[in-house]
Each structure stands twice: as C-alpha cells, then as structure tokens.
Amino acid sequence: MKQIEIIHQQAVENTKNKIMDDIEKFLGEQEVLPEFESYLEKRNTYISQIWLNVWLTKSTNDFSKRDKKAFLSERGYVVEGVDRKLINKLFRNEMRDYKPFNTKEWIMSAIDELSWETHYNSARKNFFKKAEEDRMLEQKAGIKGKIHQVSHTVLSDFQESTYLKIRHEMAKELKKILNENQKFEDIDTYMLEERLTEIGSFNPDEYRTMADFFDELTGQIHQTASWGRFYFEYETYQYHFEHKVLEYFTQIAAEEVLRNLDQDIFREYEEVFEDRLSAAETKRIINDLAEVYLDGFLYKLQEEYVTDLLRLAEIEYEESTHQAIYERDLAERERRKAGEQAELERKREEEARMLEDIFGREYNPSLRRNVRYILHIGETNTGKTHHALERMKEAKTGLYLAPLRLLALEVYEKLNTEGVPCSLKTGEEEKPVEGANHISCTVEMFYEKDFYEVVVIDESQMIADKDRGFSWFKAITNANAEEVHIIGSRNIKGMMMDLLDDGVAEIYEYSRDIPLQVENKEFSLKHTKKGDALVCFSRKQVLENASKLQNSGRQVSMIYGSMPPETRKKQIDRFIKGETSVVVATDAIGMGLNLPIRRIVFLVNEKFDGTRRRRLTSQEVKQIAGRAGRKGIYNVGRVAFTSDISLMTKLLEKEDKPVETFSIAPTAGIFERFQKYHRSLAVFFELWNKFESPKGTSKASLSEERELYEYVRDTEIEARLPMMDLYGFLHLPFSSKEPALIEQWLETIKAIVAGEELPEPPVKTASLEELELSYKAIGLHLLFLYKLGRKTEAVYWERVRTELSDDVHEFLKSEVKNYKKKCRHCGKGIHVDSPYQICDSCYSARNRKRADNRDRWR
C-alpha cells in the first residue's frame, strides 16, 4: 500500500524532530556539558516510547475507516458490520509491529562528540535568550497590570458621565444614519448570496425605541469570494452601534486613564518598552476591561426613545445641560412606560376574558343525567365488544362508534349477517340499509341530537389521543341515549368513574380465559408455524417478510395501516378460512381485530412514532400480544420476541399507567363564539396556542390543520370561504404526508371556490404503491363529495374504490412473492434478504465520493 509508506515516512520525520527538540531542552538546562551517554541514560524511557506514540497516533488518524478495513481484510479479519471502535483497536494492534523505527540507533548515527558540543553551545544560548525574553515579558505584564488596576478604579467612577457623552455621540450617529442611509427589504440572514433590495428612506416614526431600530439591516457590508462565487455579508444596527459605542468609549476611557496615572508608571513603562505610553496603546491595554461595561451602555441605549435622541443630536455637549435633559427624558420615559404597562395589562385581562368566553366553558361536561353508563373494562381479546354489541342488538335503536373504518365495517356486516339491519356511515362512505334502526360508524361521525336506545363506544382509551381524543370525550359526555356502553382497557376505569360521576350504573370487568405464555427462545423467521402473526412496524417490513415467507412455500395474509379496509378484511378472511397459514402485520392488528392467532411474534421491539424511533410501550406490547390465543381453538396464547426477551416480558407484565388526561379540540360552539371577536383562522390558531388547557385535559396539537392552512393563508381561497367551511376542509381526515394528496386537496378547494367541477382523483394501477395511493385519492374525493352533499356521485366513486381494493388484494395474493426491496438512492431492486437499504453500486459510488473528498482536502 503506497499510502502507508508515505505516512510511515512522515512519522519517522516527526519522531526525529521530537527527539531533537528533547535534546535541545535537555542541554539548555545543563550548566556544564554532560556526556552523551548521560543523556541516553536519563532519557532512555522517553526515547524508547516516542516512536510508538507518534506512529500509532498518526496511522490511526491519517487512515480512513475504509482503508483500515481493507488493511485488516488482507490480514484475514472479518470487518463488515464491525463497530468503528473495534476497527480502530484492531488496526492499532496491527500497526504496533509495522516497520519499527530504532530511535537509539538513529541518535547514535546522527550525533558524534563534535556535534554534541555544538548542540550544547547552541542550546545554552537559546536557553539564556528565552529566559531573558520571559523576564522582559513578565516586566511588561507587570506594568500593564498596574495600568489595568488603575483603569478599573477610574472606569468604575467614570460610568455615569461617560454615558452622557456616549448618548450624545450615538444620537448624532442615529441622525446621520436616518438622513443618509436607505432602508432595505428584510431577508433571512443565512442567504449570503442575496443582494439587498432598497425600499426607500427611513421614517423615524416607525421606531419607538432604539431596540426597535436595532433589528434593521444595514445592508451589504463587504463582498468576499469563495470557490469562484461571491458572498455578501450583513449586520444589524445593533452590531453597528455596538462597534461604535465600544470604539468611542475606549477612546474617552483611555484619555481619562492617562490623566489619572502616576508619573512613576509612565517612567517605568518608558524604561521597559523603550517608548512613551500613548492613548492608542492605553486603548489596547484597557480594551478587554472596556468590553465589561459595553452591555450596560447598550442596554441603556436600546431603552432610549428615538425621538429623544434625535432632539439631543442638535444640542452641543455640556455636561450639566445634558445631565438635566437625561433626567427629564428618563422621568418622562418611566411615566410613558407605566402607561404602556397599564394598557398592556388591560389588554391581557381583555384577552383572558375572551379566551374564557371562547374556550373555557366548553370543556366542563354537562352529562345527560337520564343516561345509564355501563363500563366494559378489561384486556384485549376478552369479549368486551361482543357483550356490548349483544345488548345493542336487543335494542329498538342502536349506534356503534368505532376508532377505525374497518371496525365500523366489520360491525355493519356482522349485524346484517345476524339479521339485525344496520347502516354504515364514515367520512368516506354511507351505506344505508332499508328498515335499519341501527348504525355503525366511526367516532368522528357522532351527532349528539340523534337519539338511540343503546350507544356502544369502542376503544375508549383513545380519549387520551392528542389529536383524536376529543371525539371520544364528546361522544361519551353528549350521548343521547338510554344506555351508553363504554368499552376500554383497564387503565381507563379511574378516569371514566371521575368523568361520569354517579352516572355509572354497572361495571363489567373482563379477564383472559386463555393465558399468555412468553417463549424463552429468540424467534427466527425459519421458526414460523401455522397460526403465527408476525408483527413489524412499517408497510415495507410487512411486504419484505411476507415475500420471504411466500418464497419459502407459505401462504401469507398481510395487514398494514395504509391498506384499504376492504382489502384488509379479505386478507383476514383468507386467514380465518385457512387459505393462508400466517399473518404478517403492523400494529394495526392490535385494534379490535379478532383472529384465530396461535402465536404473536414481535419481529422488532421498536417503532417510528412520527418523530423518532423508540422502544414499544408496555401498553402497545399488551395491546398487540393480547391478540394471541382464541377461546375454543387454542388453550394458551403464545408470544415470541426476536431479541431482549427478558425486557419485553417485563413490559408485557407491567401494570398499565392509568389514563389521567383526555384530549380536547375545537368545537362548533367555540368557532361560533370566536367569530364574535375575529374572522381569521390565523388568529384562531394563535389563540388556541395561548389557551391553557383545563386540569386533566391536553389540547389537540392541530398540527396537520396548521400545515394545510399555510397553503391557503392570505389567498383568494381564505378570502372567499366562510371560516367554518375552511376549517372543515382543513380537518378532513386524509393522509396529509402524501404530497400528491395535498396537491389534490388544494386543487379541489380551488375548484369549489371558483364554482367549477371538482377535479377527478388520479387513478394509476401499475404498482402496489400506485394502487394504494389511488385508493387514498378516491377516499379524499369522497370526503369532499359527502361534505358537499353529493351522494349520487359518491356512489360511483365508492364502486371504483372497491374495484381498486380488489386489485390490491389480488396483487398481495399473487405478486408479493416477487416483491423487491428497492435502493433508497437509485430505486433499483435489492435482494429481499439483503440487510442493507442501499444497492452495491450506490454504496461503492458513495465511498468513492467520500474518498475523493478526503483526497481533495489533504
């Protein structure tokens, strides 16, 4: 390796230089010439170690990780996937014995008796020269210290009168800037390639205090060139005035210090420095001390009113006159501040009353006292929902509220199959059934004025969800029924008892009849058996693992969040009927799906929650693991993990933390009251931020609504749409992380505002990704159609969407076996068993680019 020889030679030269430096230091400290052998004896340990220290440090730092791995590979080490620290350790061990440099042998050959004496004479000369230089430096530092000490006392006494001078000088500077400079358009200061755009002269009336003025840009200060491009640098007026204040203060401070120095210090300075002490040198000596006072002067300056300083600029400086003006201005400023503070306090109180009026009284539940609340509390897969639905079936009228469209669809089909006519209603579809007095819908479709004999509210622990929880709160507290059955996990019991007070008539607590048993052996994909449900946390992982299993001869059902509900149901049915033997799913399997699962297997123990990768919570592990075991089929529900079995078992056995807060969100009543004060959604979002959530509640973030709002803010769309209609469009439940769907959403709203036909959703079917995105696009279109009351059109698009869901199902049945991982850089296929997310070509190209960059900077 050519590079190693170059680095080795550099290390040899560095070692020789260090030895010669050591000889120089050793000889300089000796009063008489020592024997050469004496040096070798006393410095033996250092000389022996110096080569190894230099060589190991240089070789470790100068070789790239790639070069180290290549070097180690040639010597039979396995380096792929090995930690960087271990690579460095192995490499250093190999370098220890690589072409050692004999330092003693080199010294013996490089120095003879004659040169030893020459080295001694030179070293002693340099030693005395340095000692003299150190003595002179010490003397100079001592004199500067005396000047510094006097300066500290002088400047402490000098501050008050100094500020009067600074105030007058900066007043003149301000007047000059306002009269002679141009104002520029604001830019982001990181945009160093942007020239500033002039927008006219300054208007002093725009600035109350100097603090307001400090934020203005001065403009282009200077131009620099780098890599053939020009950059412009900017500074704010705060930096400009900071520089001016420091410059002026150090000037007058230096003059004051010179007037207060003893003549002895002047003489001592001239003797040591061989020069007279000047004002310029005094400025340099006291500069760091002057900076201590800078913040105080700037703070006072930014408190000044611009109008006061502009008047002051016209008055010649005379200390007593300016002292009187300053005291008068200060008193007037305090009076105005008191008035401003009183006005600010009045506005705060007014805003607090407005926030209470708009938001505060909305979240105190006024329960319908004639309602009997019945709680069904227990673990997953214990029959809670079944018992509540049985009571609903007996009632003359009933309403089932589900967290997912799929569960609403499941109950709709279940009741109709069992001879109880039931309609379906979600944001994306309506399926009325003739003669039906029961309805199954998603919780967001709840309407409090409709009466039902029995209402069933499923998965009530979702009341704590930061974005959707208020839908459960509203349904639970405003249900218009004789009986309300609330289904939830154990950790929701305390909150429900507090929330519903004496409204709880009955509590049913459920426990598993089938125990859960954790397997003590780490799971591998090859251990998959009939009845297993393998859980991972992304659609990509589901498809990859399903492909591996199908290629090994197994028939697989798949479940993931973005899968069309109709497709998901067909995949579930295949598993129930025995057409498939294994399920591969995301955590979507944990929400209300009852399947004949023998064993739940966690393929990973972490998930990405939208902001970061984190370990699963105890509640998540139990919710998913609880799907294992089915009464009448399996006597025990098995749970397996691929790693960290002990830790994950503890999470499974850990008692749930009680739910203590529920989520709140804006209501129609809130918007009605808000419109008494304002008509802008921008103001609404700002007030929602300021509103303090009542104890026991947490505000919905409204993050998706805010992000969508930025697309229409201050546009014709916002100007022409009533505020409630616009918020309704912002609140549509679609996947706003998909750029194509955001574009469709925006184009549809534009068409509504313009009174034009709604654009048809784009439908593409070339791949699974296109099929699923087309399904979502039609779902978004249906949300608009139902919101606009265009049900006839909706029927057609529901039929198209059903056909797409069939296509997705067929793809998963037949094509997933051929599923290919794709390189995240170039999109080319990667073998499904590859542990990497990047292809070999892109990996090699990336490494070549890194190597080229390193070479260029060397």
Describe the SSE topology.
Elements: H1 2-28, H2 36-42, H3 44-62, H4 65-74, H5 84-95, H6 103-110, H7 113-180, E1 182-184, E2 198-201, H8 210-214, E3 217-226, E4 229-236, H9 237-260, H10 263-273, H11 279-303, H12 306-312, H13 319-358, E5 372-378, H14 384-394, E6 398-402, H15 405-417, E7 422-426, E8 429-431, E9 438-442, E10 452-457, H16 469-478, E11 481-488, H17 493-500, E12 504-510, E13 516-518, E14 532-535, H18 539-551, E15 556-559, H19 565-576, E16 582-585, E17 599-602, E18 606-608, E19 613-615, H20 618-625, E20 637-641, H21 645-653, E21 662-664, H22 668-674, H23 681-690, E22 697-699, H24 703-712, H25 716-720, H26 723-730, H27 739-754, H28 768-787, H29 791-814, E23 821-822, E24 829-830, H30 840-857
Parallel strand pairs: 5-11, 5-12, 6-9, 6-10, 7-9, 10-11, 13-20, 14-16, 14-17, 15-16, 17-20, 21-22
Antiparallel strand pairs: 1-2, 3-4, 7-8, 18-19, 23-24
Helix pairs in contact: 1-3, 1-7, 3-5, 4-5, 7-9, 7-10, 7-11, 7-12, 7-13, 9-11, 15-19, 19-29, 20-21, 27-28, 28-29
Strand order of the main beta sheet, please? 8-7-9-6-10-11-5-12
Gyration radius from CA atoms, angstroms: 40 Å
State the low-pLDDT regions, or none.
219-232, 853-858
Question: Oligomeric status of the shown chains?
Answer: single chain
The count of strands amounts to 24
Strand content: 5-15%
Q: How many helical elements? A: 30
Global morphology = flat
Based on secondary structure, the structural category is alpha/beta
Average pLDDT, to the nearest integer?
Answer: 85
Please give a quick description of this structure.
The protein has 858 residues and is of the alpha/beta class. Helices cover 54% and strands 13% of the residues. The chain is flat.
